[in-house]
Amino acid sequence: MINLFTEPLDAFCGGFFLLTAIGIVSTRQILACLRLFVIQALLLVAAALLIGVKLSSGDLVAVAVITFVTKVVAIPWVLKLSAGSEIYAQREIDQVLNIPLALLISAALVLFSYFVATPMVTAVGQPFTDINLPIGLAGLVLGAFTVTVRREAMAQLIGLLVMENGVFFASISIVPHLPVIAEISAAIDVPVMSLIIGLLIRRIHKRTGSTVVSELATLRED
Amino acid sequence: MWQSILFNLIQVAVVVGLAPLVEGVLHRMEENVQSKRGPSIFQVYRDLWKLLQKDEIVSGESSWIFRAAPYVAFVMPIFVTLLIPVLTRYPLFFAFMGDMLAAGFLLALGGFFVALAAVDAANPYGAMGASRTRMVGFLAEPVFMMVFFTVSFTAGSTIPYIVQASWSAVPGGFLEPVHILVILAFLMLILADESRIPVDNPSGQFELAMIGKSKYLEYSGRGAALIKWAGCMKLVVLTCVLCNVLVTPWGLAAEHTLAAVLLAIPLVLFKILIFLLVLVIIESSLAKLRLFRISEFLSAAFVICLLAMVTRLMGS
Fold first, then answer.
1. Chain B nearest C-alpha distance from A164 (Å)
2. Are A213 and A153 in contact (CB under 8 A)?
3. In chain A, which end has fewer C-beta atoms inside a 10 angstrom radius, N or C?
4. Which of B165, B146, B145, B147 is nearest to B155 (CA)?
């Protein structure tokens, strides 16, 4: 039963994964962005579990558990701890481009990542790559796009985390027996990174009263 | 032959007769969510009855369009009912007379006449509402086209019955990214088209902020009743397309018997009830968008639909 529905369910996760990435590009509220990121991480966990069970790969199950602990539990907690007021106080995120234009560009980016991924899918030849590879690549590209297009430090951090999610979403299908050591290193790396950036954001906010990146262009000595 | 005519009549009667009930249930649930008791679910029937009893007042300066518009708006959802699967899985008489595109344009024709009538009556709010509706309409139009292109790429046809059959046949294709994205884009389209909450506040009473409702301010008596009823039917018809064709293509009558068709009525009503719950959740958890942010909402729908097409064409 579960074997029959693994691929459709993985495709289901992929569709929503893409949707959350688009949502992170276009939402105005930071808190909504963070929630979308948590949902995206949950979808990554679900996809890793599905592929792990289907290919009976213990490593992928470990990946799922580690991802759940770090991205669904630890990162939101760390961010709320280190930059709590920042998450709640900011109402709207400033954008370089207006939202319809950003959305159209992200559609073009997704098209691009499908275009790049299609020859790779045939080259890899693993069962789940036709869904996971293009969508993971799209997550990577959309995360990078979020980092460039958003002017708010917090949203840029979420963009970085989305890039990381995208890479994992692609890699769980390409390398079903991903060494756990790689995932463990990422698992330690990512929360520490968000802790540091979160603390930095709080310091900057205390110092200058804003975290809008474009306004932080001049050095000031005192 | 006679059986098909009977089934068609039942289908139309269900849409015409139960549409006010659906609207009433929606109102009731919305009020309940806001911890109020809310009106009876049959209140819309009473309103319609009251309006039908009343005299109609028509401005002497208005043209025939003002008088014709309620009838056009009332008839169009009935035509659409003949084209889409409301109760049966197998196509009835008119199923091949027009596809989903035709259904969309029939509904748009009703909207067009109502907008003309709003300008015709020379009420300043009417013209404002009409131009705003046109704005939402032309932003929604590309989304509408993309939805049908994507559906036709996936199912190989835009006839609603064939689309429904293609999605109910393969349970695997049901969870594909293209299906999820198309459903979401279509849902956003319904919200925009029906003047529901992220786009417009249907229960608002402030004329300057209205988008959908200010077109009907000038109507009274029978005209008002017909337009109100047409609005209910349009909601039911769009819900039927969403539920029976896209989201849950099961539970319709498969056999050519009267019992099967009658049994499909409660199942379809149940599906509509589930959709109304989703609608109530959306309406009570979101705020109305500012007018110039509607373009963002609809461009998001457009991009989602574009992605659906990309995942379909490039993905497999």
1. 21
2. yes
3. C
4. B165
- pLDDT tens digit string along B134-170? 999 889 999 999 998 898 888 888 888 888 888 877 6
Pairwise CA distance, residues B78 & B86, whole Å:
11
* Two structure tokens written together for B41: 């679910």
β-bridge mates for residue A150, sequence order = A95
Residue of A nearest to B180 (CA): A15
Check A114 against B315: CB less than 8 A apart. Answer: yes
Question: How far is Cα B213 from Cα B205, in angstroms, rounded to an integer?
Answer: 9
Reported for B171-176, long-range contacts at CB under 8 A and 24+ positions apart, including other chains, are: B171/A8, B172/A5, B172/A7, B172/A8, B173/A8, B174/A8, B175/A5, B175/A8, B175/A9, B175/A11, B175/A12, B175/A15, B176/A8, B176/A11, B176/A12, B176/A15, B176/B311, B176/B312
- Tokens 């969510």 locate to B33
- Domain interval for residue A63: 2-209
In a domain, A215, yes or no: no
A219 domain-assigned: no
> In this structure, is residue A27 part of a structural domain?
yes
> How far does Cα B11 stand from its chain's mean position?
16
Q: For residue A212, what are the β-bridge partners?
A: A152
ipTM of this predicted structure:
0.87
Under an 8 A CB cutoff, do B175 and A9 touch?
A: yes
Give me the number of domains chain A comprises.
1
Residue partners of B136: CB distance under 8 A and separation at least 6: B192, B193, B195, B199, B200, B211, B294, B298
How many residues in total does chain B contain?
316
Q: Do A19 and B180 touch (CB under 8 A)?
A: yes
How far, in Å, are A30, A146, B232, B242, B274 from residue B228 at the CA level?
Answer: 40, 44, 7, 21, 23
Q: Is residue A93 part of a domain?
A: yes
What's the pTM value of the predicted model, to 2 decimals?
0.91
Nearest CA in chain B to A110: B307
pLDDT in tens, A161-199: 999 999 989 988 888 777 778 778 877 888 888 888 888
Yes or no: say if A92 and A154 are a contact pair by the CB < 8 Å rule: no
Q: Do B180 and A107 touch (CB under 8 A)?
A: no
